Amino acid sequence: PVISAERLKKYVFHKIHTELPEGPFCIVYLHSCVQKEDNSPGMTILRCIYEDIPAAYKSRLEVVYFVHPGIRSRLVLATLGRFFLSEG
């Protein structure tokens, strides 16, 4: 990938800590025309980033939107979506 998992995680955490307003919020993940071999972080990396979000922020997270997910992402979310975004 063009952007490493660690760099993506640092970027997400920077945005959460510097630009997130008080109160509930949502995350929008745009996945338009991205192929795995291009710059797709993959579901495992997204799950790791989600797990590492501090509890104070995670409790305010209301929903995660996936916009234009690829076929692989759709299948994973359709079959394992609740587990993927649950606490365990």
Key features?
88 residues; alpha+beta; two-stranded parallel ribbon; 4 helices; 49% helix; 15% strand; CRAL-TRIO domain-containing protein; CRAL-TRIO_dom_sf; CRAL-TRIO_dom
Structure notes:
It holds the Pfam family CRAL_TRIO_2. With 88 residues, the protein is α+β, with helices and mostly antiparallel strands. The chain has one domain. It contains four helices and two strands. It has helices at 5-19, 43-52, 55-58, 71-84; strands at residues 25-30, 61-67. It has a two-stranded parallel sheet. The chain is globular and about 35 Å long. The relative contact order is 0.19.
Number of strands: 2
**Annotation field: number of helices:** 4
**Fraction of residues in helices?**
40-55%
Separation of termini? 28 Å
Tell me the radius of gyration: 13 Å
Give, in spatial order, the strands making up the sheet with the most strands: 1-2
* SSE ordering: HEHHEH
What's the number of domains? 1
> Structural class, please?
alpha+beta
Spans of at least 5 consecutive residues whose pLDDT stays below 50 are none
Q: State which percent range the strand residues make up.
A: 5-15%
Give the overall pLDDT as a whole number.
78
Major sheet: size, sense and barrel closure?
2 strands, parallel
Architecture blueprint of SSEs:
Elements: H1 5-19, E1 25-30, H2 43-52, H3 55-58, E2 61-67, H4 71-84
Parallel strand pairs: 1-2
Quick summary of this structure?
It contains 4 helices and 2 strands, in the order αβααβα.
